[in-house]
TrEMBL record:
Keywords per UniProt: Cell membrane, Lipopolysaccharide biosynthesis, Membrane, Transferase
Catalytic reaction list: lipid IVA (E. coli) + CMP-3-deoxy-beta-D-manno-octulosonate = alpha-Kdo-(2->6)-lipid IVA (E. coli) + CMP + H(+)
Similarity-based family: Belongs to the glycosyltransferase group 1 family.
Entry protein name: 3-deoxy-D-manno-octulosonic acid transferase
GO biological process: lipid A biosynthetic process; lipopolysaccharide core region biosynthetic process
GO-annotated molecular function: Kdo transferase activity
Gene3D superfamilies registered for this protein in UniProt: Glycogen Phosphorylase B
Function of the molecule: Involved in lipopolysaccharide (LPS) biosynthesis. Catalyzes the transfer of 3-deoxy-D-manno-octulosonate (Kdo) residue(s) from CMP-Kdo to lipid IV(A), the tetraacyldisaccharide-1,4'-bisphosphate precursor of lipid A.
E.C. designation(s): 2.4.99.12
Organism expressing this protein natively: Serratia marcescens
Main location: membrane
Length: 87
């Protein structure tokens, strides 16, 4: 899971579903809720687009790119291949 990867890397994090407000020391906010991506992208310094580390395929990177922040994705971007090539 994203949470396990963030924990393993040693980052401080919050889960949106916990209701906890990120502090100045929070390094990662895991968006595990519905309907909040635009809000999260608006406050982010960069975005990792989920779903792309497994063969499910990633989510739409255009939403993050629209906020002019760097977009990171895993290798499985086949469902947004053309968009990823243009980014």
């Amino acid at each position: 899971t994203a949470k396990e990867l963030v924990q393993k890397a040693g980052f401080s994090y919050t889960l949106r579903s916990s209701g906890e407000i990120p502090s100045g020391s929070t390094q990662v906010v895991i968006g595990d809720t519905m309907g909040e991506l635009m809000l999260l992208y608006g406050i982010a310094d960069l975005a990792f687009v989920g779903g792309s580390l497994v063969e499910r395929g990633g989510h739409n990177p255009l939403e993050a790119a629209a906020h002019a922040i760097p977009v990171l994705m895993g290798p499985h971007t086949f469902n947004f291949k053309d968009i990823c090539a243009k980014l």
